[in-house]
Amino acid sequence: MYFKRVIATAIILMLGIWFAGCTDSAAHENENPDVEAASERITVGFSQLGAESDWRSENTESMKATFTEENGYTLIFEDGQQKQANQIRAIRMFIQQEVDYIVLAPVMETGWETVLQEAKDAGIPVIIVDRKVDVSDDSLFTCWIGSDFELEGKKAAEWLNRYATAKGIAPTDIHVVNIQGTKGSSPQIGRTKGLADAARANGWDLMAEVPGDFTQAKGKEVMESLLRQYADINVVYCENDNEAFGAIEAIEAAGKKVGSDITGGEIMVISFDGVNREAIRYTLEGKITCIAECNPLHGPRVKAMIEALETGGTPEKFSYVDEGIFSADQTVDVLNIDGTDYEVTILTEESMSGDDKNR
Ligand code: AHR
Prior knowledge:
The protein folds into two domains: about 40-145 and about 295-320, Response regulator (Rossmann fold, 3-Layer(aba) Sandwich); about 150-295 and about 330-359, Response regulator (Rossmann fold, 3-Layer(aba) Sandwich), CATH 3.40.50. Helix content is about 45%, strand content about 20%. It is built from 13 helices and 14 strands. Helix 5 (about 85-95) runs parallel beside helix 6, helix 7 runs parallel beside helix 8 (about 185-200) and helix 9 (about 215-230) crosses helix 10. The longest helix has 19 residues, at about 1-20. The radius of gyration is 24 Å and the shape is elongated. Bound molecules: alpha-L-arabinofuranose. The site of alpha-L-arabinofuranose has 12 residues, from helix 4 and strand 9.
């Protein structure tokens, strides 16, 4: 914290005065610019939840590229490997190390009260990033930055609704399965709700909701099993791109075709993230029909929050990032959700050429 660094600087100054009283040669022997520079830096303990997806890798990279020594930070990075217990252990370690800030990307929403209370008692501000925590006392964390996951789900579902309406497809002819993300995580809760609400409102046949843990391997395994159980699936709603890659593998291995002709035997793949090259290529090829964007580049956003706190400011308690929706299919160009218009970005080979098709 700021106060801690002021004390450290004062100690260094006092030591400097003391050294000045020593002989020149003795003073030179004891100077250690590295120690001084380190004590000036802000220490951030970041508990990342894991490395399950391309989105997560981009998110980790954004944090590591932001919290560098050149930028005035010492970053202590801990990978929770998808286990809340590991993340709790990391937070306790950060408290023992007396870091200046704790940044937490929580694997799931519940179960954080005790450890966040410990951080609060230690006087360490906690910034929550990406997913949310479900706590009864909001003062247990300083602020949160991330995506509106339910809005992402509403966008994807509304895209399907507009598409079906434009093509004259009856709601009862939409047989959709949902490969969900990690159960109990904010993106799973929000995206699942977005689809379930739309299915109920529009009269779609929502056949199954099965967790796929946001991974390609589980997405494939779940899709294989769903294809064995249900003969008439024509839409698969994957709660991230890695699950979509796995689902596409399973669909093609079963001798079926992915695409948007859902009354002509194809299975439409709808997805989330839009982070990597492969997802964009699949979209251009029509293998993924629509992607609701989820933006992982939170490093600079968290840094801005810390800078505000350092200068006595108060960041917004909840900050949502702006996100779009992508498709190579031109049927739907705009969505209206709760009174707001969202333009669909139509991806073409031309619009993506010259781009590295990556963020
Ligand atoms: O919390 C963000 C989600 O987590 C991303 O959509 C997904 O890819 C990741 O694993």
